[in-house]
Write a structure and sequence with these properties.
It is found in: Membrane. The chain is 82% helix and 0% strand. The chain is mainly α. It has a domain of 31 residues. The longest helix is centred in the N-terminal third of the chain and has 45 residues. It is elongated, with a radius of gyration of 21 Å.
Amino acid sequence: MIDLDPTTLGLEFGGGAAIGGLIGFATKKLAKLLAVIVGVQLMLFRYLESQGILIVDWNRLSAGLLKTQTRAQDAADISWLQSMISTLSIGAGFTGGFLVGFKRG
């Protein structure tokens, strides 16, 4: 017979939800910061190009951004996360907390 302690399951779920919420919130804030930095950099390139100070090959620049996006998507593989989370209650709490934190962030 399986012995399940509701208190332990609740603590695992709550702890996973809290950690997931913090990580989701931080992830969204970091993504916003990176988007602002890239946007400012592209505006600076456009301004310097309009002043004749800089010549930008926009095709090569956008190709590099697309390669970076592909690498970032490959790095987002969550197999390491699956091995870290050992029980379903922690995983469910973490996932729920992550989504709430990411949405609120």
